Amino acid sequence: MENLVMDIKAEDNEYLHKDFHISGDNGLLYVGQKYGDNGVREYLYQFTKAFYVPMFEVYKKEGLKALMDHQQKLYEAEKMPEVFHAELTDDSLTITIDKCPGVTFMKSRGYTPSKWYIELTRTVGMAIADELDLGFSMEYYNEEDGACKYKYFKRAF
Fold first, then answer.
1. 90 with 77: CB under 8 angstroms?
2. Which of 3, 29, 31, 90 is the most buried (most CB within 10 A)?
3. Cβ–Cβ under 8 Å, residues 125 and 138
4. C-alpha span between 140 and 148 (Å, rounded)
5. Where are the beta strands (DSSP E) in 59-155?
6. Half-sphere exposure of 45 toward its Cβ, with a 13 Å CA cutoff?
7. How far apart are CA 157 and CA 154, in angstroms?
């Protein structure tokens, strides 16, 4: 019998486990019930500042385009790139989402997202903006399907 040697890296394998949406929301539900609204926001703010360090570094070199590319890759990984729309200018990035892949998946499983699920867009967006010295505004969020529109913009000093 002959041995076969394969050189495989983690990035060679596609991995998408959509149940993490439900697990993540259950985590938000726990934090929210135990520590309240501010506890959820504080948790997500701290998580964002740690998790997005690699994207923050790319942003320092590429500006708002890096943020747009990062967000777009998330929707490509979710196999729903068609719901992502971005408008990039020199001073702002506006993102419109037709429907949230996470909300879509959860509802397909009969699960209703918690009242804190919105914070994955609102608080994470604000934390990213704060870390990059940008402004952030959320123009709308539809709890039924997670459709939303938000904007990052350079602050006028």
1. no
2. 31
3. yes
4. 5
5. 84-88, 92-97, 134-141, 148-154
6. 12
7. 9
Could you report the per-residue pLDDT of 19-62, keeping only the tens digit for each?
889 999 999 999 999 999 999 999 999 999 999 999 999 999 99
User: Is there a contact between 68 and 88 (Cβ–Cβ < 8 Å)?
Assistant: yes
All structural domains of the chain with their residue ranges: 18-154
Q: Are 40 and 120 in contact (CB under 8 A)?
A: no
Residue 114: pLDDT band (50, 70, 90) is very high
Rounded CA separation 127/138 (Å): 13
**18-154, what's its fold?**
Muramoyl-pentapeptide Carboxypeptidase; domain 2 (3.30.1380)
For residues 4 and 86, the answer to whether their CB atoms sit within 8 Å is no
